[in-house]
Amino acid sequence: MNSTSFGKFTVLLRMQLTRLRTSWRPYLIVSSVMPLGIALLMRAVMDRGQVDRFGIQIVAGSAVLAVSMTAVVMLAQRISWLKETQALDYYATVPVSRSSVVAAVLISFAVFSLPGAILVVGVGALMFDLSLTALWTVVPVWALGSFALAGLGILIGFAARDEQLAGMYSNLVMMAVLFLGILPAAKLPGWVAPLRAVLPSTYAVDALKPGLAGSFGAGQVVDLLVLAVFGAIFFACVRGPLWPKGE
Amino acid sequence: MRNAPACEVRSLRKIYRDPEVVANDGIDFSVELGTSFGLLGPNGAGKTTLVRQLVGLMRPTAGKVLLFGEEVQTGRSSQSVGRHMAYLPQGAFSLGELKVREALQYTAMLRGCGRATARSESESLMEVLELGPLADRQLRKLSGGQRRLTQVAMTLVGRLPVLILDEPTTDIDPELRGRIWTLLAERAGDGAAVILVTHDVAEAEHVLDRVAILHEGRIVAAGRPAELKARLAHRTRIEVVIAEGTTLGDSFLTLLGPDHRVERRRVSAWVAADEAVMTLEKVVSAAGPGAREDVRLITPTLEDVYLELGGHHLKDEE
Q: How far is B112 from chain A (nearest CA, A)?
């Protein structure tokens, strides 16, 4: 029996996931050490009242930062390297659709970001005495948030001229995710509001917060929908650059 | 359009901008199913640029590439090209974590083979190319030659009708190089169109039905290897390897004529074919039994044809 389109997609996904054989440690360490370190530092300097007021924001922001480290920074550098070395030629010359290749890459990096996110949420919840009763709500936030952020990572990887620039751009995005995600919106100056609005991480943090408070509401659904729209837009944007323009 | 050539190139021209470089200039050729075609030439001749246009990875500045009569569209879905054409690039492979067996089976499945066919084809290719002991090793842990061999197998798996291979034997030892050439000749014999870019002219010429020699972006000669070599049939090369520590006088070199070439202990020169044996006897006599390590009469090769056309030694350019 010949491979169907879905069969080919599963092959592409399995090919991408083989990276976990050797790279799961770097993915876990890179994605969790910094967010956990920041959460720990904040916890160390906060009094009980501040922990109660800002704990959820800090853990949610740190968890989304963990996802961003893998889905934005590491993916952008990976894509840029693939582009530079013409390693993407393989996919461009086998009979598969661009959508399948892009989806396989996006999903694989979403998977790579999962262990770090779980670790940060788990340890963060313990540090800040948060409820884990609605922890299941982390799953849709991770799924849609990592998909949207990985789309942003691929976009940066294609837009950057080389791997170094991809690293620089993605780290700038990561810094924005860090400050705009961990600091409460009320504490931020007004001029950053537009930046918050265009970063998918904002909606991921907002969607994660109710779950860490032990609840689930309509606001969370709206944030998840916005993340889905971001994911769809990035998906559409990165399908084009995957194949060469014929320089 | 199965009666159209498997691959046809018409007036192909490729100009890079900034800085402006004419990489391909008015290239025409066609390759039929069941034949093998070689693109020869030094680095910078435009071979890889040409090949990347054949597989749709680069857009021609002018002219067109046709695959079974249909124009190859660059920048669009690869699916139509990928269904008919397998490509071995010079560059890296993105997934070093894949094991050799997986790389072959997955590639076959992406080309449309079912799981059972993919498995049997992969096993068969691994056996022929002696990749069996490496089947469960990750690509990133292979030597350069082993990785190249795996990439060759990945190109052959799925049995597509058009095979395009850019330097398939780089880093591969002589015995396995021979197997690759044999395998490619068999594929052409089985009905595939095989297009090769290679520096291994001496080895490849035995499996190539036709060749084109590229120089500065243009095809400067094309035809069957025997036809091209017939251009030099009036000449024969004498090659003498001098024994270690021996110095030969001017009188010896004079016998070989003014255009002789000296590379370390190897002295070579072209002589008229009908005088070759006589000249050889004089050279052997002049050198004396202790002074020469080896003496050969060599009929013209494709590389000689290339040199005659104003190029450089292909091997020198690697």
A: 5
